[in-house]
Each structure stands twice: as structure tokens, then as C-alpha cells.
Amino acid sequence: MQIFNFRQLAIRSALLLSLGLTVGSCDDAVNVEPSNSVSSDTGFTTKEDAAAGLLGAYDAVQSSDYYGLAFPTISDLIAGEITFRGTFTTTYGVIGQNQALPDNIQIGNSWNIIYNAINRVNYLLQETDKITDPTFTAKLSTQAQARALRAFHYMNLLALWGGTPQGYGYTGGLGVPLRLTPTTAIGTETAFIPRATEAEVAAAIRSDLDFAIANLATGTGNRITKSSALALRARFELRMRNYTDALTFAKQVPAVANFATTAPTGTTAPDALWSIFFSNTDQSQYAFYWYPSPGGRDEFNPGSTIAAAHPAGDLRLPINVVTAATSVTVSGAPYTLQPGTTRKYFRTTTRDDAFNVIRYAEVVLTVAEAAAQTGDLTTATTQLNIIRTRAGLAPTTATTAPDLIKDILLQRRLELAYEGVYWYDLRRTNTVQTALPTYTQTFRNLFPIPLREVSLTNGLIAQNPLY
């Protein structure tokens, strides 16, 4: 598996304009063309341009406002899986209290980087269509990865800002602005557009993932493959409560070798289907925010309830919640884990902890849950027990669909801790208010649309209700 340093290699693919949803820049700023960028007037003309453009598309995911820190973190903060103890009280702090407002800077930054990422993909798709070089044999693969990325971005937009307070896939579900073509110049391309419906965005997500599944090979790594595209489609259908489809797609994901006999670990994730890799020169921010000085800000601690949620003997507890100084070996060198942190992100010196976007463990649990929801309790029990056994737990004692689903959801919470999943499980199962009874304002189950988007469009982009 080859690891690319996206941020260094992606510079060539930078666009003259990489606009998000709205435009607030002055003409002078827009008219400055960086010397190391590919002008939107010139476009991509070679397969090398396309390769660099794809790296640029992946690079956007690494942003500290996206999967370099913020997006999974705000998801886990509002779910109570992370306790905020730092200085960013007006951004992360209020999110952790479920009191975020439309002017929250971090929410606005995350919205903007996602639309920036979508624009990079849209431009790449537009420009690769024009390349006729017969040696560009990776054209379909390039476009398939790009479309899978776009689907992933819209999945995240819907997850945080869309649906209804009850969850996803309900009649009248709210969507987000749906842009499928690039914005490269001020004018008609950047005209404001209203929010699409949830159903319209969902259709675009499915179309993109279907294209990716049809045109990619199976595998794992730091690029999207057919395996991870199938897993993303299964995740989306589960979120939308389409359990038959979720089961169909999850069952198509090739099994990871030795998964059932490999114990869970926080330092590596051999079951990762798609990971975002970082390096000493291309750093993630997770360890920096989780760990105290030297090397960190000490902004985050495990939530107040996650430790107690682990059954006795659960091998994931010392991974998810470090309660005492613990010596581990990293790349042949000793390292001491600090109390009040996690073993999933701790490399404060190099800041190169990978972020696992989707893992085979999630796929196994998707099969289990979708099977239970569709009446196949034998399959549900078998798949659930794979996860329980890996975690050092006895087989489940659940015998009914509701009890199996309850256990499956607990295993998802513990298995995928701090990976930005739990909040969306609460939302899709309509259990936010049950799990977090102090969250009495159900409208806050949807995040606020950033104030700038509503203000600059004179309300064409409608705010989520009651904000």
C-alpha cells in the first residue's frame, strides 16, 4: 500500500478559484493567480494534471476544518463522546453544550471546506472529460474516485445539516444546496441556489457511489476503492433506514483477512478500508488537541459516560479511555499514554495518526443491524458475535430483534469511538433525546446553516427551523 503526502503533491492541482457556496471575496483577490496553480482558464490538459487534481481533491479532506480534526470532533462533542476542556469556548465549547448558533465560526469553516472539496471534485470531473490522451488509462478510475468523494461530502452535509429532527429519510427531509458543476469565475456559475430536498441530494449520492462501485477495483488504503465505496453506500442506506439495501451493499464488501481473530487496537487499524494518512510534514491535529503539553493543547477528554458503557473485560476500554499512564511501543520506541486521553490519537511529536474514515468493523455491524431489522436474527447474531469476540466479550444473550439491535448499537459506539459516528447513529435511530435527555430542543438535532450563507443569499438558502 503506497502512502502519498497529499498536501505536498496537491499544490499543482490548486484551482484559480476554489469557491464554496457563496462568494464574499473582492475582485482584486479573485484576480490574483497563484504562480503554482493551474488556472481555471487553462484547465487540465494532461493525465499528469488529472493525477494532481485528484490529489488535490483528496487533500481537501485532510483539512483541519474537515477530517484533519473538526468534522468528526464536532460530531463527537455534541454526542457527548468527547468532553471539551479547552479555550475555544465560543466554537467547540458551545457545540459540546448543544448550544451552537448560526454564527459559530467552526461550523461555518467546516461547511465552507466541504463545499470547497466539492468544487475541486466538480472541476476535476469537468476537466478530465476533456482529456483525450489514449494513454490516460486511469480516466475512469480517476472519475470514479472523484465521484465517490463527492458522494462522501454530500453524505456529511446531509448528516449534519439535513433530514428532520426525527432522523433521515422521512417525508419533507431538508437537504443542502446541490452543486454538481464547478464554480470557476464570478457570474452565473456562482449564482446563489436554494437548498435541494433531502431526496434530491440522496439521489445524487447514490448515483455517484454507483458509478464508483462500477469502475473501481477492490482493495484498501488511502484511496477510495470499490470496497470502501460499497461500505459508504451501505452506511448511507443504513442511515436512511433502507435496511434491505444496506444489507445488500454491506454483504458485497470483501472480508478483511483475519479480521475475526485480530484483537482491536488503537495504534493501527488493520480493518481500515479507507484511511486518511498524515505525516510529520502533513500533520493531523487529533493528538495535538487530545494530549497535554509538551506536544498538545489538552482540549479534549473522553466523555463522562463512555467508560461506563464498556462491559466488564472489554478490550476496547483501555484504547478508548486511558485512565493511567501507560507505556506502549511505537515504531520500536517507548511512548507513555497520558490519563484522560485515548490511544486512538496520541502521536504528538509527529502528528501522523491516521484517521480511519470507514472500517470493516462498521461493515460487519451494518450487516448485523440490517439483518436484525429485516428479520434475519441468525445472521445478526453471528455478525454481532464476531465483534464481541474480538473485544474479549462473551457471545450476546439477546434473542429478539430489539435486544439484538440495542447490543449492535452499543458495539458501534464502542468500536467506532471518536471516529465521528455515534451522533449520526443517535440521529438515524431517533434516540438523541433518549440518550441525551438534557437535549430538549429537538430542532438542534440539525446543526444551524452558517449565518453567512443565509445572509449573503438574502434568505434564498433557508435556515434550519427555529434557529
UniProtKB/TrEMBL annotation:
Ranges where the RagB/SusD domain occurs: 347-434
Keywords for this protein: Cell outer membrane, Membrane, Signal
CDD domains named in the record: SusD
Signal peptide segment: 1-28
Transmembrane segments: none
Location in or out of the cell: Cell outer membrane
SusD-like N-terminal domain location: 98-238
Keyword Acetylation part of the UniProt annotation: no
One Pfam assignment: SusD_RagB
Key word Oxidoreductase present: no
Gene Ontology cellular component terms for the protein in this record: cell outer membrane
Family: Belongs to the SusD family.
Name under which the protein is recorded: RagB/SusD family nutrient uptake outer membrane protein
